[in-house]
């Protein structure tokens, strides 16, 4: 094998060189090659931005992948070949687009979710950004996610009606949890399960062969025009379970609440950073005159809220924690199991390998919903958020407790736990002040 062939192999196998040492990659399959090498490095996102070098997020940290900038024409050509010229035109006209993409190779078939958006490019106003996120063909089994037993029960045993929300930032594993929950639901009972997604994340068709359930999926802009149109149609199909990719607009929220009241169990996601903030986050998009009614409707339907964040996970090379930190020492954690990042060949000397979920959740019963409705009538939205925060502590798990468990078992670094602790203390002070003003 020639030296140039050796160099090409080193570029694309993703096993011989760190990402930041990769040379510029050129050729007709540049995007697929980059996606493959980044996936082999366990990258969670690959960012192609016109006029900039390609970057990838590995263990939660962005790093450069190429030494040369990628141009707008190359990104547009890739989108056109993957989708259509009309898609490129729509993106340029200010309409972001989510796409599904598959890289097929010898003995592998890798799936990606692509998000294309028109952006500013330096002095020009017509750049483009394409973010690719690897997704698995199948969701993991729910048992593999190591969720608390009461949360697993809440995600999978409620059949009659209600809304189950999985929340968090982009890339926090919301779709993974939902996919695993639907997989388990289909195995536990014979159900009619339907989804509408943007785009379809996990292909759940295999459940039709492996279970007694009937599962069908629709993709936005591929099978249906909008979430509201899809939900209207789905309700006429009499499904037991409806999964809506995201509660992103007023009509989708209204219809999801209506579906949950008419005998359907609705799963969905929301971009919010705390379980206690979901009601306020949903209602903020509505006019003031409608917020109380929408809040009451959502509270009446809400069954479970899970909020999740992914943080860097310590590599197995981590060493015992040997620093003195008064904040951590006074936090009540068991210091015996705490580890700190070290670095080895396996983790490319970063000290981290993969990501660890930190979660908070609340399981709402009838008495909890009744209390929230009373608080809504008496104290408004601020009172609802404060009470929901208390219910998280009483009928669920706080993010601080989740971080405490993770740091005590050597899964996350002390600094990550410390940041969660400080954030929680600050939020408690703010919430206490707001509640005091309300009581005055």
Automatic annotation (TrEMBL):
<dbReference type="InterPro" id="IPR027417">
    <property type="entry name" value="P-loop_NTPase"/>
</dbReference>
<dbReference type="GO" id="GO:0005524">
    <property type="term" value="F:ATP binding"/>
</dbReference>
<dbReference type="InterPro" id="IPR001482">
    <property type="entry name" value="T2SS/T4SS_dom"/>
</dbReference>
<feature type="domain" description="Bacterial type II secretion system protein E">
    <location>
        <begin position="235"/>
        <end position="249"/>
    </location>
</feature>
<dbReference type="InterPro" id="IPR025662">
    <property type="entry name" value="Sigma_54_int_dom_ATP-bd_1"/>
</dbReference>
<dbReference type="GO" id="GO:0005886">
    <property type="term" value="C:plasma membrane"/>
</dbReference>
<protein>
    <submittedName>
        <fullName>Tfp pilus assembly protein PilT, pilus retraction ATPase</fullName>
    </submittedName>
</protein>
<comment type="similarity">
    <text>Belongs to the GSP E family.</text>
</comment>
<dbReference type="Pfam" id="PF00437">
    <property type="entry name" value="T2SSE"/>
</dbReference>
<keyword id="KW-0547">Nucleotide-binding</keyword>
<keyword id="KW-0067">ATP-binding</keyword>
<dbReference type="GO" id="GO:0016887">
    <property type="term" value="F:ATP hydrolysis activity"/>
</dbReference>
């Amino acid at each position: 094998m020639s030296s140039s062939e050796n160099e090409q192999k080193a570029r694309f196998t993703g096993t011989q060189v760190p990402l930041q040492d990769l040379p510029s990659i050129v050729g007709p399959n540049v995007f697929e090659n980059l996606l493959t090498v980044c996936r082999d490095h366990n990258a969670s996102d690959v960012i192609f931005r016109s006029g900039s070098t390609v970057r990838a997020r590995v263990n939660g940290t962005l790093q450069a992948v190429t030494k040369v900038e990628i141009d707008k024409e190359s990104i547009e050509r890739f989108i056109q070949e993957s989708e259509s010229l009309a898609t490129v035109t729509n993106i340029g006209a200010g309409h972001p687009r989510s796409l599904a993409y598959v890289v097929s190779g010898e003995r592998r078939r890798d799936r990606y979710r692509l998000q294309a958006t028109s952006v500013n490019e330096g002095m020009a106003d017509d750049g483009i950004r394409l973010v690719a996120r690897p997704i698995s063909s199948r969701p993991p089994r729910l048992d593999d996610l190591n969720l608390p037993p009461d949360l697993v029960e809440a995600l999978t045993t409620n059949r009659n009606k209600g809304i189950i929300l999985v929340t968090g930032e982009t890339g926090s594993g919301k779709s993974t949890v939902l996919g695993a929950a639907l997989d388990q639901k289909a195995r536990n009972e014979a159900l009619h399960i339907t989804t509408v997604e943007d785009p379809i994340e996990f292909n759940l068709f295999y459940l039709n062969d492996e279970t007694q359930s009937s599962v069908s999926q629709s993709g936005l802009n591929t099978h249906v025009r909008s979430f509201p149109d899809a939900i209207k149609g789905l309700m006429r199909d009499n499904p037991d379970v409806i999964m809506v990719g995201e509660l992103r607009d007023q009509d989708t929220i209204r219809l999801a609440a209506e579906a949950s009241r008419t005998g359907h169990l609705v799963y969905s996601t929301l971009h919010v950073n705390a379980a206690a903030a979901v009601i306020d986050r949903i209602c903020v998009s509505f006019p003031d005159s409608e917020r109380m009614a929408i809040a009451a409707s959502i509270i009446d339907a809400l069954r479970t809220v899970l909020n999740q964040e992914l943080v860097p996970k310590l590599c197995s090379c981590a060493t015992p924690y040997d620093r003195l930190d008064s904040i951590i020492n006074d936090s009540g954690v068991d210091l015996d199991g705490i580890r700190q990042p070290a670095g080895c060949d396996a983790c490319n000397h970063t000290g981290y390998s993969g990501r660890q979920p930190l979660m908070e959740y609340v399981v709402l019963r009838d008495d909890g919903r009744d209390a929230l409705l009373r608080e809504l009538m008496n104290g408004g939205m601020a009172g609802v958020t404060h009470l929901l925060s208390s219910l998280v502590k009483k009928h669920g798990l706080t993010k601080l407790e989740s971080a405490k468990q993770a740091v005590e078992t050597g899964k996350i670094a002390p600094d990550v736990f410390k940041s969660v602790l400080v954030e929680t203390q600050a939020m408690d002070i703010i919430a206490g002040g707001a509640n005091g003003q309300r009581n005055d």
